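Dear support,

I submitted the protein below through the web form. The confirmation email said the job was done, but the results page showed an empty box. After a refresh the structure appeared. I'm attaching both so you can tell me whether what I see now is the final result or a partial one.
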Amino acid sequence: MTQQPGSPVPQKQPILVITSQVVRGGISGRGLTFALERVGHEVWFLPTILLPWHPGQGKGTRIVPPTDAFAAIAEDLARAPGLGEIGAVISGYLGNAEQASAIEGIVQAVRKANPQALYLCDPVIGDFPANGGSGLYVPEATAEAVRDRLIPMADIVTPNRFELGWLTGREIESELQALAAARLLGNERVVVTSSPALRRNAIANLLAGPRGAVATEHAVIADPPKGTGDLIAGLFLTNLLAGLDDEEALKRAAASVFELVARSVKKGADELLFAEEQQSVVRAMALVTSRRVLESRSRA
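What the results page shows now:
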């Protein structure tokens, strides 16, 4: 719809972000908060853990708030003035399994104050291991809390391919397997990042939504910085809140992530260069293809 001259610009709703915080770098809450604020949202940010940097960059101190303190601040937020203004909640990396209960309470409070509010659960629990191992980088109890408590109440879930396989107990080697597993979760919208692509040397993001399935594809970039999953989840959500349909919301989010990664890697950075390349977040020029994905009526 075209905005009429002189008419007020629609105000973007605040978003509550609940995930990890790093001192240096652009992963998780640090990059996600910057991106959401850059596109016009006020952000409420509740850190689940404090880290000096991404764990893949070396060992560092982990500060997890005591369970009772985290629960107390969550309860404070649940009765905060302005709670009904929040348009969405995003949860990501958890510091421990007990935090799931507090997050569950916040989401319920936000929905009571604003029944239209969306909840996006980004199950940040693991990835394919480079040198063996389970692939989980949180304790199994934490992964189970995300699976059993948070995902069932989410409107949108954004697992990577490994996480989707772990959550559903299925092998994900093809697009159709990814789609079937996404439908098995049962959420209204599931975005599978790093989904198997149809083109060679490409990577896909697959959305299983209420009006069908759609996939976006772009070229693979070798050794990309971390934090892309957090970013595409947040940008997809804000695009939905802006009124875009599923396909356009995913396509624009994927283009922003692809362009930001490409520009960061070109400059030799091992982190996403949010400050230097912030225009990629706002309006990316990168070309990303999208297509409809046919699925079985039985969705077995």
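Response: this is the final, complete result; the empty box was a page-load delay. The longest strand covers residues 43-51.
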